[in-house]
## 1
Amino acid sequence: MWLFLWSGVISMLTMVAYRSSPEHNLTTQDLLLPLEALPSTWEISGSPRPMGPGIGFGDEDDTYISFKLKSDKYNIAYQFMLHYPNIRQAEKGYLDLHRSHFNDNSIAVDVPWQTPAELSYTSSYADQFRIACTINNVAGPKQVCQVMGQYGQYVLIFHSVIRPDTMSLSEFNGVAQFLDEMMVKKLALPSGEWSSGFAVAGRTPPRHIPLPLLGRGLPGWCGRCPHRATCVCRSPACLPTAVALHFVRHHFLVFHLRQSNG
């Protein structure tokens, strides 16, 4: 009986969640950081370019842009925007990029990626999100910070050198917030709860479901949180599994109590 109940709930929630995934006609160039959001001493270093084999990741419909100081010729920051065919592939793409872009074992970094106190911003909209810094040794030691987020079918990365003449940690924190709010506005993302239109026991499932409440090792992407001490289910791909598990646990507990009291 429980197997039938489980499969039925999973099928129903998965079907509705995926049907409600919004469609966007935005290109990755529409989601690039405007120069006005950066320090006045910065400028764009060349026009936005397609990604792909030339830079080692992404496809031709993905875009990256670089920035430099007006007084110098060397790039100090990059933004990468990637678009995936569906949410599941975007989740996997984020995890693959997370492993390479926040690689503590890279010979280019001196210390593990960490989040300084000045980088206090965290997204309540992104499906997956991380902001952190390290010391990069390429062309001399320097502090670099990076923010990465998955927003539905889009993955965003912004990477910058941090030093007195480029950008402070607080300024980087502000750029991360600007990017997050820009993605929310352009993609018309909801906050706090999924707007999928289905209900469990008359209530809309919460956007974030803490994994410790539900138990670890859930199927799908729920059990993979490489950058969070407390994992949360944030995406529509893993939400059905989490809600279904919560549903089954609740009814199993009710059944057990009735048997005990009966």
Note: Residues 12-21, 192-239, 245-262 have pLDDT under 50 and may be disordered.
## 2
Amino acid sequence: MLVAMWSWIAASSAPALADCPADAGTLRAEVDAALAAYQDWAWPKFEASVAAARRDVACLDEVAPPELARDLHVVTAFAAFRADDDEQMEAALRGVLAVDPSWRPTVDQAAPGSTIHAAFELARRHRPEQGRVVLGDGAWFVDGRAGAETVSLGRCAVVQRRDPSGALESWYLTGTKLPGDLLARATPPTSAPPAATDPRRRRATWIAAGGLGAGLAAAGSLAYAAHMKQVYTSAATAEEASQAYRANYFWGMTGYTVGALGAH
């Protein structure tokens, strides 16, 4: 299935000559078939429908309506889920929400606790505004919307251009980079898209901080005990004992503070 997913990306990133042209109605039927097969766990039919959509998305001879673009991104997310490709899954779901912010997966499509449900929650919190590419001359459409001047590199998108002769070119962006022939018609991106913050990574960071804090606390306590033993057994002055206490108390409390934050 991973091979099928990467075949999707390779085939849909740039206009193709084989099996062209294709109309939006044909692509609509293929996407609907993929959605129904995914719902029924009919994986051979799902893969066949994805392959058909892969073949035709770059051959469109008409502008894809926004609803079709949205559902194409949904199919891409499902295919990425099947391929265990978290990055592609999140980029596809960001594309879905860019077209339709109200879209939500059903429980059957993304059960709570599943990786695709987690990817959807990440996509909801990260709407890419950076990494936008300014499109060049011609009439551009992004996810079926006319008058587009930019497109984000941080999400999936159906990008189409109608040249002065009326010919239409179509690309499917996967949320990573632009196809070479599309890049030739655009200016460089303003900046790289920001990486989504996975709550699991934040948790791992806090756990690491907790470990560091516990280490500092233990080190501070041991150092304090050893130092005070040395101070008192060497008949130190009260001032020396006070200075030792303040220094080691500082490191001990620093460790406990960091440890408490890590455990939060």
Note: The mean pLDDT is 75.
## 3
Amino acid sequence: MTRARSVNRVRNPYCLIFLALVAGLMLASVAHGMEASIVDFAPRATETEVFEFSADATPRLEVRLDQGVVRVERGETGRVVVRANAPLGETVLGSTVKIERHGDTLMILPRKRAVGGESGSQAEIDLEVEFPARGELDLRSHLGDFEVYDIDGEIDMRSDRGSLVLEGSSGTLLLQTGSGSIDLIDLGQSVVRATTDSGAVRYRGGSLTDGRYSFTTASGPIEIEHHREAHYTIVGRTLSGDVSNQVDGVISDDSRWGPVKHLHGEYGLDHQAASTVQVISASGDISLALSPQPGDFAVAASDQPSEPE
């Protein structure tokens, strides 16, 4: 027994060395994995181009991209700033996309990547564009998303599978996507046509004033939430979806000849010029409600019983 204990004492240093080597290999493996993750999440390269226009010009921006996110927001009069963001492993302006100028029109077009000696898809790139308050936008993409903020004029946004966001704008507004959603937020006086196949159409915060609005989906829901000062007439229907209505003056009912559910009526006219709203869905739900206002929450809070002292 004494000899066995002495042998164990002799072997202990070798065991410690072996364990140290194993631990070192494990740490090296972890470090290698962490290094690979850092490469995967490498910083993005940024390039910027600035284009000057005369103050009285009506600039037009045309975008044709396969993928990526394009965000357009209000900038300075007479100036368009294009800022491109791409992973450091990718090329950016001039190679991933090209920008052409023809008079007052800027065109952002993709450059295809060569794959096996053949033309492939455009590398992913995100664009941020500062654009004058008024102009024309013609935005098209296959997989990409578009976001436009506070731009007035003629706006045409289309994507096969991407989502579309339009906020704080007015004018002639056309939005169309195959499987993405459409969000319309705080729009001014406009003629709007929003169409999606399987995504949702959401109208939030606007007043539905002095315009024409058409919302259409195949299987996605249509949600309308507007301010109290709105005045409009509405006609809507869904073939197999449900209708939820919380607005006085608008009637929702079922068809006597089948599963079709209707929504029709008028709101807040008071002898003012009324907007027309058309809502059509094949199998999606339709909801109509008033936007909550700060005063609503104040009243709700005052209605709560006070706690006894």
Note: The CA atoms of residues 297 and 303 lie 10 Å apart.
## 4
Amino acid sequence: MKWLQLGLSANEYEIHATQSEATLCSNGITISNHDICAAGVVIHRRWRLSPPKPVIKLILDGDPGNFGQREWVAALDYTFWLWRRLSPKTLWANAPNVVQDRLILYRLAAECGLDVPDTAVATRYYQLPANVVAKPIAHNEHVHDGAYFPTTNLTSSARGSLLSARSPCPHLTQTVIQVKQELRVVYSFGLMGVVSLLRDTKAGPIDIRYDSSVRCFRSSIPTHVEAKLRAFAKLTNLAIFTADILIDSNEKYWLIDVTPSGTIGSLDDDRTTLVTCCVEGILKELNAPSI
């Protein structure tokens, strides 16, 4: 029997998870998906206190502390969810809920046949592969005072300092894709709108949301990619979402992010293709007149 306690200090945990396996360690106890699959029963229990204790104890206060908690919760939610998904014959007491976690959505997208870059979460930066970008784990990327954690290229010079600055939060990294074209797709109750995102310079930030040189044009996606996105919408029960897709030099379509809320922001063309698609889908669902 193995027992792993939550609610301890962050430095008492190590986590390492990919799209196919996850390991969690604390106080000399290590539990992996192999342990879960071999177990007869898994008891997933959170204590009931009012107010509930934090999942992980952090020395950070205020907004940075809230950011750290969200990152830990998202990493642990994914770990427990993946364990459950990989152990169909194991009896779970209080099985983890399916949440709209970035890592869970990556895994489900891959199950639908969409290509997703190799993704990993770890508490130790030496466990992470080279040639990657760093992202927040939770969808809420706010750190403090209006500052957000953007997708960041982990060059060899910035790797140690950036990941150390995020400590004691786990780190999410994703393999860099050599981009030929960038697309943003909106799915709204069965309708899809696509725009192509064109950068005027290659010197801008890797996170296209922060590149002021971007221009948007109406575009499209192949039928096989559209079919996989529809399968993803059905599997996740997401009626509205946005998907960011990269096309590489081999014409391979890579899903790099999904936003369940369907956030569009400023990345839309002059004809408001994405906004119009989103609204049209909602009106169609409500049997209301089109705009």
Note: The chain has six helices and 16 strands.
